[in-house]
Amino acid sequence: MAVKRRYQSARRQEQARQTRRTILDAARRLFVEPGYAATPLTAVAAEAGVAIQTVYAAFGSKRQLLSELVDVTIAGDDEPVSLPDRPFVAEIRSLSDPRAMLAAYARHLAHTHARQVDVMIALAGAATADPDAASIWNKNVRERRQGMAMFAADLAATGRLRPGHDVDSAADVLWLAMDVRNYDWLVRQRGWPRERYEQWYVDTVTAAIIDDR
C-alpha cells in the first residue's frame, strides 16, 4: 500500500506539473499577442482548456503567472536550478582565453534569445504601462546586471581586461551587449543569421573591454 500511495502521489505531482506547463504555454501565446494588459486570466484558462480556479490554484495571480513565465522562458525549463549553477556556466569557466569565453557565452545567449525574445519584448512593452509588468521587468534587469558582474569577474581573472576597465565597467558593457533588444533588432528586424549575431557580440565586447593583443 505504501508503494501504491507513493506511485499515486508521484503521478499527481506530474499531472500538476503538466497542467502548469499547459497554462504557461497558453499565457505565453496570449501575453505576446494580444498582450499582457489585454489578457484576463479567464482568457488564459480558456486557452489552456482548464477552469479559472485551476489557474488561481497553480499561480495565485496574473502577476505571479507572468513572473513564472519569464523565469521558465529564460531558463528553458522549470527545473529548480539557478542560472549560475547551469552547465553552460561551468563550460565558460573552464576556458582560459577571454575571447573563447565570450564565444561560448554568445552561443548560449543566441540560443536563449531565440527562445525568449517574444516574451521579453512583450514584457518590455507591458512594463511601460502596467506596474506589475514593470516590477518584473526591472527585477529581470537587475538580475541580468548581477549575472554580468559575475561574468565580468571571470573575464577579469584572466588578466586581459583593457586598461581603464575594471569588473564594474566591464559588467556594464556585458550587460548592454546581451540585452534581448539587440537580438530583436539584428536578428528579427534586420534578418541577421544567428551566427552573425554571435560574431557581432564577440567582436563588439572584445573590442570594448578585452586586451586582445
If helices are DSSP runs of H or I spanning 4 or more residues, what is the number of helices? 10
SSE order, one letter for each helix or strand: HHHHHHHHHH
Return Rg in Å: 20 Å
Q: How many strands?
A: 0
Estimate the global geometry from the Cα principal axes. Answer: elongated
Mean pLDDT: 92
Low-confidence stretches: none
Strand content: under 5%
Q: Quote the distance from N terminus to C terminus.
A: 69 Å
Bin the helical content: over 70%
Name the structural class: mainly alpha
Biggest beta-sheet profile: none
Characterization of the model:
This protein is mainly alpha-helical and 213 residues long. It contains ten helices and no strands. It has helices spanning 2-35, 41-48, 52-59, 62-75, 87-93, 98-127, 131-156, 167-177, 180-189, 194-209. Helix 1 packs across helix 4, helix 1 crosses helix 6 and helix 6 (98-127) packs antiparallel against helix 7. The longest helix is centred in the N-terminal third of the chain and has 34 residues, at 2-35. The chain is elongated, with a radius of gyration of 20 Å. The mean pLDDT is 92.
Characteristics:
213 residues; mainly alpha; 77% helix; 0% strand
